[in-house]
Design goal:
Blueprint: H1 9-16, H2 28-35, H3 43-55, H4 58-79, E1 85-89, H5 99-106, E2 111-116, H6 119-128, E3 135-139, H7 145-149, H8 152-157, E4 165-169, H9 181-191, E5 197-203, H10 213-221, H11 232-237, E6 243-244, E7 250-251, H12 263-267, E8 271-277
Length: 280
């Protein structure tokens, strides 16, 4: 069953008190929430998401595999890399299996700073984290790294003299080339200590999708954030300065899967993902 705010009275009341929310135009973060079965979306989001799913049913698989990658990579970072500090950029609307839930379950002292500028994502996250003194949501645009890195809550929770994991999960498809994605990543990289990590996933260009993807891309053009798909080589450029952790940049579901994944199943991710580490 797909969600909507009316299923959660507390959320519905919260959203009504957010006058800056554009309820008339679909928003990719809220559409993504709908793909995952979440309850934090509006009629315009659901209508647009259903149009996408009618053209590309694979979109729901893409969203779920992307979410599963986030959960696997956080477990790896905590249990195998010893990371307990996370900066989750463009974190989106919270749903089950958030970064702080996974990290703090494994190591209770783990600290997480979420960053987003979508009002529903920010409000819902702040409500969820109200009683958690080791996790915070700040409203900011990741395209302005200095504002994010110098934010009082970022400085309170994260010690950049020690390794930090920067998470950029499916966020760059909504950032155009003219905003210099490579430069954005580089700015965050320079703020991090050796031994820090970058986890990133990115949906792929049209040749990796069925032919209907062009229609879906046009639909996103009328949303608050149009799509900017990239090929694997372009995504690999975002890891400049990092050493890739095995298995490198691969289809999302093929990154350290919990169970065997065939090549054909991996391609159904329609996205690639990887983890890089800053050399000591």
């Amino acid at each position: 069953m797909q969600g909507h705010p009316g299923q959660d009275p507390a959320s519905a009341e919260l959203f009504e008190n957010l006058p800056e929310v554009d309820r008339e135009r679909a928003n990719p973060a809220r559409m993504y929430d709908y793909y995952l079965g979440g309850a934090h979306n509006f009629a315009a989001d659901r209508e647009a998401a259903e149009q996408v799913l009618a053209m590309l049913p694979e979109t729901r698989t893409f969203a779920r595999e992307n979410r599963a990658f986030l959960q696997r990579v956080v477990r790896y970072l905590v249990t195998e890399a010893g990371i307990t500090q996370f900066l989750d950029l463009g974190s989106g609307i919270p749903t089950v299996g958030n970064v702080h839930e996974i990290a703090q379950h494994l190591v209770p002292s783990s600290r997480v700073v979420y960053v987003d500028h979508e009002p529903v994502a920010v409000a819902q996250s702040q409500r969820m984290l109200a009683d958690n003194d080791r996790a915070i949501m700040i409203r900011a645009d990741l395209r302005h790294p200095d504002l994010v890195l110098q934010h009082a809550e970022t400085r309170r929770l994260l010690d950049f003299s020690q390794p930090v994991a920067v998470l950029m999960i499916s966020v760059f498809p909504f950032i155009p080339d003219e905003d210099d994605p490579v430069g954005i990543v580089d700015h965050y990289r320079q703020a991090c200590a050796p031994g820090s990590y970058l986890a990133l996933s990115h949906s792929l260009t049209a040749e990796f999708w069925p032919s209907e993807v062009e229609q879906a891309i046009k639909l996103y053009e009328s949303s608050t954030h149009p799509l900017h798909l990239r090929n694997p080589d372009q995504v690999a450029e975002l890891f400049d300065g990092y050493r890739m952790v095995d298995p490198g940049l691969v289809f999302t579901s093929a990154w350290r899967p919990d169970r065997a994944v065939t090549d054909e199943q991996a391609k159904e991710s329609r996205a690639v993902a990887g983890l890089g580490v800053l050399p000591e």
